[in-house]
Amino acid sequence: MSLSTILAAIVNHLQNSIQEDKLSGDRIKQVMEHIWKLQEFCNSMAKLDIDGYEYAYLKAIVLFSPGLTGTNQIEKFQEKAQMELQDYVQKTYSEDTY
Description:
Blueprint: H1 3-19, H2 25-48, H3 52-63, H4 71-92
Helix pairs in contact: 1-2, 3-4
């Protein structure tokens, strides 16, 4: 499901809730700020133009964050994924020092 579809559904729900007086102005403002932040995050991620390998490494790093049970094993896995991502990026973009 695309982000635009999700956001359109949220906005549609907000509009219906406004018409039915189910939401306060403050709550609507809060939700709209979250939507804006999500859009900004997605736009900045799209600008990175990451490939499938980079995406997979980043996904592994995020999915196995230290907040889960068995943190020692998870931290080791996360470190390994970070090192492999770093190696991949250095090999793939060797001319780009940034």
